[in-house]
Specification:
- The protein has 484 residues and is of the alpha+beta class.
- The chain contains 16 helices and 14 strands.
- It folds into two domains: 5-282, Butyryl-CoA Dehydrogenase, subunit A, domain 2 (Beta Barrel), CATH 2.40.110.10; 286-471, Up-down Bundle (Butyryl-CoA Dehydrogenase, subunit A, domain 3), CATH 1.20.140.10.
- The protein has a six-stranded mixed sheet, with no helix packed on it. A four-stranded mixed sheet has the order 5-8-9-12. It has a two-stranded antiparallel sheet with strand order 3-4.
- β3 and β4 (67-69) form a beta hairpin.
- α5 packs antiparallel against α7, α5 (103-115) runs antiparallel to α9 and α10 (322-347) runs antiparallel to α11.
- Bound molecules: flavin-adenine dinucleotide.
- The site of flavin-adenine dinucleotide (FAD) has 21 residues, from β5, α14 and α15.
- Residues 278-477 form the HpaB/PvcC/4-BUDH C-terminal domain.
- It holds the Pfam family HpaB.
- GO terms for molecular function: oxidoreductase activity, acting on the CH-CH group of donors.
Length: 484
């Protein structure tokens, strides 16, 4: 049986500890802060179980024979990677890339952990076995995983072990059954929507930080795991018409506090080992696979934003003005660049043992450029929108007052759209570029993969400097030095 939406929604009624606005949310599937986002996650699983998309989006698990999402599939060739890409891109379309941590994101990371299980074996075969077992478990249950891999923002001049006790997640006990962990991780996006949480540390640690150098997985309802949710944008979205994206795709973020959570050994991947924790992301294809998925998500979002920009100009009859056409051309080129980078990283991919991995250098080129691009694209949409995104009815309810509705329909004019269509599009535009939800998305695209200096560091590390240096050396060698 392929997992469907009702399977997923039911799986979230598991007694998890989620707090919002001073209260514990007993059932996240019906809570006004989360229910629409939960339904959007459920819709993804309905899509993969539908006869129309099952073949494209799922494959037969080698473990059970049941069909599971293609995010778990381990590409061995370029063609495998391209087929997986087609599935993952299709799966972004229902949420238009607004679910940053859609289920295929961390599934991509865990699939790449499986590809690199031998790295763990070298330290301790039990850790390699845990990685393999966890991948099979998550794949065969088609679990929605999310992760928290960054420590809480705090005094950056202190080493992690010098900070207040219980601030940053650390191992506090170890026995025959496993580890006990206590402390916080910065954020888990989609924590409310997910079944399980992968925990690790992508930031560099140093000697003395060993208790913090741990990686494991736990279910979101693990005893002692507390999800302290941020403000819900969905809860204040008065209607789908007024808030078409924030009412449905507010994927949730939350600080995760581990109040003495017990982790069994078969879910521990790294145990107090600074070097293995670093290798988990940067000595394996894990970081590349998870961020390659981000590009597949982003391209859908960028195409959607480009369509909004274009339609705004049509509605205002500005499309043919040369300056506007130029702005749209620039936008088109930027979207094309990201698409080209995705194809480039696939074509330049390499074998990693029996598996095929996208090219890291082109991946990080894209990460650096898109981190800068997203705020720029939002700015372009603001420029093209002008005051149209503010010259709007206060809410859908205005249409129910005949006096106001009459004025709306006299004022909201366009040569190519009815007043209602015009209001609908500009409401959408504001939700995407100007709402609190939109602002959080700018922050997300700027930081989900680390601050700019971190992402540029990855680009520096993976660029083929020898290849470009050879060009320089050859050229310098082609002519004589002074007085030679
Ligand atoms: C919306 C959103 C969702 C997120 N979701 C998740 C999630 O699901 N899982 C997860 O694990 N994490 C998540 N994160 C956390 C994200 O990974 C971090 O925000 C990111 O890694 C940056 O770390 P930081 O926030 O501590 O910023 P900092 O590292 O503090 O950087 C902030 C700024 O400080 C300056 N700065 C800091 N240190 C240095 C330095 N050494 N050198 C130079 N300049 C410096 C730079 O100007 C930098 O841009 C999310 C973040 C956001 C905003």
């Amino acid at each position: 049986m392929t997992k469907n939406g009702s399977d997923h929604v039911a799986s979230l009624r598991d007694g998890r500890e989620v707090y919002i606005d001073g209260e514990r949310a007993d059932d996240v599937t019906t809570h006004p802060a989360f229910r629409n986002a939960v339904a959007s996650a459920g819709a993804l699983y309905d899509m993969q179980a539908s006869p129309e998309f099952e073949e494209l989006l799922t494959y037969e698990s080698p473990g059970t024979g049941d069909r599971v999402n293609r995010a778990w599939q381990l590409p061995k060739t370029y063609e495998d990677l391209a087929n997986r890409r087609r599935a993952l891109i299709k799966w972004q379309e229902p949420h238009l890339g607004f679910l940053g941590r859609s289920p295929d994101h961390v599934a991509s990371a865990v699939a790449a952990m499986y590809m690199s299980a031998h790295v763990y074996d070298e330290i301790d075969p039990a850790r390699g076995a845990a990685v393999r077992d966890y991948y099979r478990h998550a794949r065969d249950s088609d679990s929605f995983l999310t992760y928290t891999i960054v420590n809480p923002q705090t005094n950056k001049k202190q080493a992690t072990h010098e900070q207040d006790a219980d601030l940053t997640l650390a191992v506090v006990d170890e026995d025959a059954e496993g580890l006990t962990v206590r402390g916080a991780k910065m954020l888990a996006t989609s924590g409310v929507l997910a079944n399980e949480l992968f925990v690790s540390g992508v930031q560099p640690l140093q000697q003395g930080d060993e208790r913090h150098a741990v990686s494991f997985a736990v279910p979101m309802n693990a005893k002692g795991l507390q999800n302290l949710a941020r403000r819900s944008y969905e809860a204040s979205a008065t209607s789908t018409f007024d808030h078409p994206v924030s009412s449905r795709f507010d994927e949730t973020d939350g600080v995760i506090f581990f109040d003495d959570v017990k982790v069994p050994w078969d879910r521990v991947f790294v145990n107090q080992d600074v070097d293995l924790l670093r290798k988990q992301f940067h000595g394996t294809p894990v970081h590349v696979y998870q961020n390659y998925q981000c590009n597949l998500r982003l391209i859908v979002k960028l195409k959607f934003l480009a369509a909004i920009a274009h339609r705004i100009t049509e509605i205002n009859s500005t499309t043919d003005f040369p300056q506007v056409r130029e702005a749209l051309g620039q936008l088109a080129a930027e979207v094309g660049m990201v698409e080209a980078l995705i194809h480039g990283m696939e074509v330049k991919g390499h074998q990693y043992g029996e598996y095929f991995v996208p090219d890291p250098a082109l991946l990080y080129s894209s990460q650096v450029l898109t981190q800068q691009l997203y705020p720029k694209v939002i700015h372009t949409l603001r420029e093209l929108s002008g005051g149209g995104v503010i010259m709007l009815p206060s809410s859908e309810a205005d249409f129910s007052n005949p006096t106001v509705a009459d004025k709306i329909r006299r004022v909201q004019k366009s040569a190519v759209a009815s007043p209602d269509e015009r209001v609908k599009l500009f409401k959408l535009a504001w939700d995407v570029i100007g709402s609190e939800f939109a602002s959080r998305h700018v922050q997300y695209e700027m930081f989900y993969n680390g601050a700019a200096f971190v992402v540029r560091g990855n680009a520096y590390r993976t660029f083929d400097w020898d290849d470009s240096r050879a060009l320089l050396d050859d050229f310098l060698g082609s002519y004589d030095g002074p007085l030679e």
